[in-house]
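User: I'm putting together notes for a lab meeting next week and I want to include a structural view of one of the chains we've been expressing. I don't have a solved structure, so I'd like a prediction I can at least talk through. The sequence is below, exactly as it appears in our construct file.
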Amino acid sequence: MAPRPFYYKETHGIRISVRPAYLADESDVTAARFVFCYTVRIENCIKQPAQLRSRHWYITDSIGEQYTVVGDGVVGQQPHLRCGEVHEYRSFCVLKSGQGTMSGFYTFVNNDDHSFDAIIPVFELTAHG
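Assistant: Thanks for the context. Below is the predicted structure for the 129-residue chain, given as C-alpha cells.
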C-alpha cells in the first residue's frame, strides 16, 4: 500500500500538516458522492500561547464547484496551545467528483489579544480506484 500524501505549512510559528484520504466504503460513485477524510495536526512553535478561534476553508472539486466553510474552532473545539503543544483532529468532506482541493486558514489569538492567521496548505483530494 502506497503511503498517503502529506501536506505541510508553517505561518507565524504555527505549523499545520494535513494528511487526506479517500473513503471508498463511504462513497457512492454512481450517485456522484465522493467522501474524503483528512487528519490535521496543529503545532504551536512560538514561545507564546495561542488559541485557535476560527476556521476558513476553501473547497473546490474538479467539476468546478466551490464551497467556503467558515466557523468557530475545529470540530467543536477552540484549542489553546502553549509552546510546543499539538492539537490533532480528523474531519471529512463530500465532493461531487473524485478530485478536488482544500485550503484555507485558522485564525488564532495570542495572550496579547493579537489575532493572526495560520495558513492551511493546499491539499489534494483524489479518489483511487
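A couple of points you could mention at the meeting. Residues 7-123 form a domain with the Immunoglobulin-like fold (CATH 2.60.40.1470). Residues 42 and 87 are 5 Å apart (CA to CA).

User: Perfect, that's what I needed.
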